[in-house]
Amino acid sequence: MSNILDDHPVPKWLGAACNGCGKCCIDSNYMLNLPATLSDIRRWRKEKREDILEYVDFIGEGVYDLWVKEGKSLPRCPFVRKDRGKPTYHCTIHETRPQACRGYPLTAGQMVELGCEILDEIESVTMRISRAKSK
Ligand code: SF4
Ligand code: SF4
To answer: Phi/psi of residue 73, each to 5°?
Structure first.
């Protein structure tokens, strides 16, 4: 992960340009560092989401790691599903997904690292704006 790029936070509204490519949810490196918050844990306990809690690893001091099975980090989220006949994916726990997923993307470095396709959209729009301005 590039620390220089990670110093560049991105605005929350960028998330609206997500095209559902799924790269974030099926990236093994991203899965290695995906945390849950205490509020995620409390919510899942309240909702009796044992199906989610079984993939949470308690690291200590209020730190929880996602998505872990039998002590091993899974290479992709167990709750992501491919859309039938489409190149896209969807989250099957969208309504109660972790805070980390709600906040994505946080930084430019994170997007570059994952090959997030929001970047393609930004580049495409930027090029169209440049062309329009140069006329
Ligand atoms: S919980 Fe949903 S948004 Fe988060 S990694 Fe899994 S599929 Fe993706
Ligand atoms: S990598 Fe980016 S565009 Fe693809 S699903 Fe994740 S947020 Fe959306």
So the answer is: -70, 130
